Amino acid sequence: MSAAEGLRKEPNSPLGEQVRRALQERIAEGRLQPGDRIFEQELAVEFGVSRVPVREAIRRLQGDGLVEVRDRRRGVFVRSLGRRQAEELFDVREALEGLAARLAAERSSPDGVERMAALVAEARRSLEAGDFAAMAEANSAFHDELVALSGHELLPTMLEPLHGRLAYLFRLNLEPDRVCAEHEQLHAAIAAGDAESAVAVAQQHVASSRRMVVDHDLC
Question: Are strands 76-78 and 67-69 parallel, antiparallel or unpaired?
């Protein structure tokens, strides 16, 4: 990845935040794996910045639980998710996405439902084409859209610190057909304004994903 691609040339965004997002994206996409070491100087050269914003980004990623400092030489490594952390993330998802699904069914606009439909269709096309990375990206965007459709101002703020770890979970997918089908069911319930069905589908979706990740020791 080039520096321009990694930082996306956002003049109004602090460099530390741009570096943080670039590294978070790499972790979520699996380009940085658990146990990989992160070198400040290499990243500074790659992104064309000083080490100050890189250090700031690493501090924030450490606070988000995505990296850890292991030894006296201050080696920084991508953190393994771990079973307990995965379970806790699913607990949070079940509670917050159930709420988001209910509110989305009650409040969503035709434009929002259409955006969700486009993401569902994109995920299905990617699945049929065997492009699982594109499918994971569409699925992650689907969950973001679900939260946006809820119209709840606090939900995005509450979920933002978990975004990197949640995106990583979305890529641990051994059951792509099930995931696509459940997203299609959730979209249908929201489009119909059926709040109870939307909550039930959302919670079943989280429960199925929890079983898949934990039972197969993917975390």
Answer: antiparallel
